[in-house]
Amino acid sequence: MANLDLAGVRKSFGANTILHGIDLAIEDGEFIVFVGPSGCGKSTLLRAICGLDEVDSGDIHIGGRRMNGVPPAERGLAMVFQSYALYPHMTVRENMAFALTLANRPQADIDAAVMKAAQALRIEPLLGRRPKELSGGQRQRVAIGRAIVRQPSVFLFDEPLSNLDAALRVQMRIELARLHRDLATTMIYVTHDQVEAMTLADRIVVFNGGRIEQVGPPLQLYHEPDNLFVAGFLGAPAMNFLSGEVRDSDGRQAAIALAGGRALLQVVLASAPARGQKVTVGIRPEHLLADTAGGIPATVFAVEHLGDGAYLYATVAGSGEQVIMRADPEMTWSAGQVLALGAVPGRIHVFGEDGQRLKPA
Ligand SMILES: Nc1ncnc2c1ncn2[C@@H]1O[C@H](COP(=O)(O)OP(=O)(O)OP(=O)(O)O)[C@@H](O)[C@H]1O
């Protein structure tokens, strides 16, 4: 087990700077999830941590030891890839034992380590099979098992579940959470899956263009995003954004004109912007209300029924902006219906012209 400390980590490929000075401290035993749009540098940072790529500048400390220049095999890490990377000619047992065999560990120790990992992942009956005789989920378990037997101080996962079907992903996600509880080892996990990020992470790191936008516990990021990028990135469907203008402000309380001036929203902020400033108001689909006295008129143009909920797609009068609202599936909704939009109190976000969230009072 080990903590990890990244300080000013920079990495370029040719003229392209991919990582622009990453600072990140990861506690011993934490489950950290990296998210961000495609190409933002998540895998590059993972490869730098495990030593597959050297950084241009900055320091990587693992368990207090500076790892710059240390070969991957000596960093005490184990990486699990999306593509499993199992040896096809070896059995599951041989695949799992490989690193320990290479290290000339006594056979009895190897057998015990393989059996313990196989039991943790419930793959003992598969130990004699070759990878081609396994399902995708079983192969992924073997890849994780191979990482476990090495007893790494940190696990690195690069989208390990993305090749699995939806049901298997859910099962493996729950197993990974259990594994983390049992092993209590530091884990760094890259994913595009919002549910994996929200459910597995102790803290999520949101990347954008080779920089960290925000780090925090999942629900903190969801409910208190620092800026428009994080607000729009986390959550599916995404947060609705409405453009507004401050009509009146006493430095704390502000009246924001929305929907092209058809509606006035009163907010109380720690520091409200001055009259005339442009702002963006953010409201999540599940926090919009359909029938609010004095609400903003919006016309439904599409309805999606999901069984456990419904999504209404509506156009806001005055501005033509489109919003998505999560609605009660027991009620009747139809295209052409006019809503009076409001929001759950305390769930309205206001962002300034620079995209930063304005803290509520
Ligand atoms: N070996 C390399 N040589 C040149 N460019 C590279 C190399 N590896 C990565 N890149 C570039 O670095 C950028 C970041 O890639 P990276 O794989 O880290 O992104 P990512 O956030 O993991 O993306 P994804 O979510 O799609 O996996 C991309 O523009 C990619 O093309």
UniProtKB/TrEMBL annotation:
ABC transporter domain mapped to chain residues: 4-234
UniProt keyword annotation of Cell inner membrane present: yes
Keywords per UniProt: ATP-binding, Cell inner membrane, Cell membrane, Membrane, Nucleotide-binding, Transport
SMART domains: AAA
Family matches, as PANTHER family: MALTODEXTRIN IMPORT ATP-BINDING PROTEIN MSMX, MALTOSE_MALTODEXTRIN IMPORT ATP-BINDING PROTEIN MALK
Protein name stated in the entry: ABC transporter ATP-binding protein
PROSITE patterns membership: ABC_TRANSPORTER_1, ABC_TRANSPORTER_2
Xref: SUPFAM superfamilies: MOP-like, P-loop containing nucleoside triphosphate hydrolases
Keyword Kinase: no
Source taxonomy: Bacteria, Pseudomonadati, Pseudomonadota, Betaproteobacteria, Burkholderiales
Gene Ontology molecular function: any one: ATP binding
A Pfam family recorded for this sequence: OB_MalK
